[in-house]
Amino acid sequence: MDKSYLAYPNRAYGQDHEFYDWRMAKDRPSLAWENGAKVAICFIIPLEFFPLNPSGTPFKHPGAMVTPYPDLRHFTVRDYGNRIGVYRILDTLKAANISATFAVNGEIAKRYPPLLNFIRNAGHEVAAHGLSTDAIHHEALTPTDENSLIENTLYCFDTKPDGWMSPARNQSSRTIDLLTDHEMHYCLDWEADSVPVATKGGLTLIPNSYELSDFTLLHMRKQGEEAWLKQMKSSIDLLIEEHSRFGSQMLGLTLTPYVIGQPFRIWALRELLSHINVTEGVEAFTAGEIDKKFRSQK
């Protein structure tokens, strides 16, 4: 390896960034969720607008169009999620009496106000999810341009959300500070721990599992629904087992409407929610509820 790789100026003991203080898992204070829950489940449902002709700057969103313009096959599948799949998820959450956090693109907020009203009236929470899937936050943006992306996103909502998830969960080194400047309460981009982490500016980083995302497991890795369900249950069981060592932990689980909302897959979500409801020590909370509970214990 070229020795220049070892000359990174921020390399230090513990971690090589300063967004939050470093500590080992065994040294963090134990958390306690409501109702004595040992494991908090936070369902995050992205509602995303995919342009037919994405710029792909600096990279294409993982769910972006695949074939040359106009890629109507993939476009209509994504649109199916926002028109059909999301309502199957909403029906399933209602049947299980579970509330979730819907991460909504600004373009979706502008184009589908009745959908946002339906989500809010059903008792769920709305977080901002960037302007669109073609508005990626990255290091080559100027601070002014990235700040404008956040401002323009928040402008699309009639009520300013407290939470944020970046398109493709990609950030620049400035994103955390800019979100803090805009008085956002929590961010759903990272999964650095199995408990929330507070940045030095006061933003709560709520873990959002990429490895357990339905998009990752069912779409990218082409696993079956049975395997996905088993992995969800196994993850919950292990966090319960670890409670005596680490206190209450959490799982942030992404449910993608055009993936888990398909008619041949929704049974797996129904069974997962049933498992959560009958398993002692497991409770589902929105990201905002987790943020407030975490802040009260810092």
Précis, in short:
Residues 85-156 form the NodB homology domain. This protein has 298 residues and is α/β, with parallel strands linked by helices. It has helices spanning 72-96, 106-111, 113-121, 143-155, 175-181, 214-220, 225-241, 243-246, 257-260, 266-278, 287-295; strands at 39-47, 101-104, 125-128, 163-164, 186-187, 197-198, 204-205, 249-254, 282-284.
Number of domains: 1
Looking at CATH, the homologous superfamily is Glycoside hydrolase/deacetylase
What does the radius of gyration come to?
19 Å
Tell me the distance between the termini.
41 Å
Q: What share of the residues does DSSP label as strand, in percent? A: 5-15%
Tell me, briefly, the overall form: globular
How many helix segments? Answer: 11
Question: Architecture in CATH?
Answer: Alpha-Beta Barrel
Order of helices and strands: EHEHHEHEHEEEHHHEHHEH
The total of beta strands comes to 9
CATH topology: TIM Barrel
Largest β-sheet summary: 5 strands, parallel
Helix content: 25-40%
Mean pLDDT: 95
Structural class, by secondary structure, is alpha/beta
Q: In the CATH hierarchy, what is the class?
A: Alpha Beta
Could you describe the 3D structure shown?
This protein starts with 38 loop residues before the first strand and ends with a helix. With 298 residues, it is an alpha/beta fold. The protein is built from eleven helices and nine strands. The chain has a single domain, classed as TIM Barrel. Strands 1, 2, 3, 8 and 9 form a five-stranded parallel beta sheet that branches. A four-stranded mixed beta sheet has the order 4-5-7-6, with helices on one face.
